């Protein structure tokens, strides 16, 4: 069951990452709003009292969220106009 739970976590992470990028690419969220949401998510795991849990769980979760923030910045810098990221370029090539 642990492998199934781990796979579900990886799938959820991939889905969330894709949705965040798509929301920014489509102009639903500004990159700054996406960053703020990810910062809030990371902060929720910082200094968390994990009673009955693996003490490293929240630290690892925070590191994953921080990596996602880095990926978001790389994929869509704040100075780049909305809709000009990789997804928009891909869509313009399709049609």
Describe this structure in words.
This protein has a domain at 30-81. 71% of the residues lie in helices and 0% in strands. With 95 residues, it is mostly helical. It has helices spanning 2-25, 31-45, 57-75, 86-94. The chain has four helices and no strands.
Sum up the structure in keywords:
95 residues; mainly alpha; 4 helices; globular; disordered C terminus
The helicity comes to over 70%
- Beta percentage is under 5%
Based on CA atoms alone, the radius of gyration comes out at 16 Å
Structural class: mainly alpha
Beta-strand segment tally: 0
Please tell me what the overall shape is.
Answer: globular
Oligomer: single chain
Q: Which residues form runs of ≥5 with pLDDT under 50? A: 81-95
Give the topology string: H per helix, E per strand.
HHHH
Look at the structure and give the mean pLDDT.
78
Distance between the termini: 44 Å
Total number of helical segments?
Answer: 4
- Sheet with the most strands, sense and barrel status: none
Region (Disordered): 76-95
How does the SSE layout of this entry go?
Elements (H helix, E strand, L loop, with lengths): L1 H24 L5 H15 L11 H19 L10 H9 L1
Helix pairs in contact: 2-3
Would you kindly provide a brief summary of this structure?
By secondary structure, the protein is mainly α. The chain is built from four helices and no strands.
């Amino acid at each position: 069951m642990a492998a199934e739970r781990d796979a579900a976590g990886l799938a959820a992470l991939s889905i969330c990452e894709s949705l965040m990028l798509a929301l920014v690419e489509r102009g639903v969220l500004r990159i700054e709003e996406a960053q703020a949401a990810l910062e809030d998510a990371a902060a929720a795991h910082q200094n968390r009292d994990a009673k009955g849990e693996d003490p490293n769980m929240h630290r690892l979760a925070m590191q994953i969220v921080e990596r996602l923030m880095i990926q978001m910045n790389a994929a869509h810098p704040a100075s780049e106009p909305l809709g000009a990221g990789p997804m928009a370029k891909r869509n313009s090539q399709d049609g």
